Amino acid sequence: MPKSHLAPYRTSVCLSSRHLRARAMLGVAGTICWLLCASGSCASQEPKSETRTRGLINGHAWAMLSDDQGKIGYFLGLLDGWKAQQDLKGYVTVGEILAMGSTENISLQNAIDLIDQGYKDPANIELPVWWVFMAEVAIKRGDMPPDTAFTALRHLLTQIMTNAEALSADKFNEKFSPINVLNAAKEKTVSPKVSP
Q1: Model confidence over 127-173: pLDDT tens digits?
Q2: DSSP states of 62-113 as a string?
Q3: Percent of the chain clearing pLDDT 90 (strictly above)
């Protein structure tokens, strides 16, 4: 695989052939997982797994990945999946641009460090990796403090896990969108509080 293929990620990390093989293996898995969850195919009633939340790896699995191959490969898979999902839809929402658009100017190592930072709080361990990444991007951008972002996402995860309502994939994604939750948390952070 030519290194020019990696140019869209503007990475400052030198990827060896070993890293590229890991990217190929984990990237495909990440892409498939992203597409399944983006389409609503991951049901909230999935079997309980310590390493997965809604079909996506969470902090437990993230901690088990090696720093050099596993985390970078998985993250590149998430980026590939996000790009594939955009291509399938044919458009990108403003929320998606804000949530993931800044990945073009971030090195792979910085992205991995952001995710590691999000999982330092044990309360976030059940959150999917890409949720943690989006929250950390919003935090680093100054959109909201960490407690606001992660409290909102943990509340969303609780809502998803306790939801008994049968929803179509589109309705499920509309009702339980982590992007919408982060945007709403940002609005509450910047909006002046009105006294009763």
Answers
A1: 999 999 999 988 988 889 999 999 999 999 999 989 888 888 888 88
A2: HHHS-IIIIIHHHHHHHHHHHHHHHHHHT---HHHHHHHGGGGGS-HHHHHH
A3: 31
- CB proximity list for 68: less than 8 A, separation 6 or greater: 19
Q: Is the pTM of this model over 0.85?
A: no
Distance CA 156, CA 127 (A): 10
Most distant CA pair in the chain: distance in Å? Answer: 61
What is the C-alpha to C-alpha distance for residues 196 and 180, in angstroms, rounded to an integer?
26
Phi-psi region of 194 (alpha: psi -120 to 50; beta: other; left: phi over 0): beta
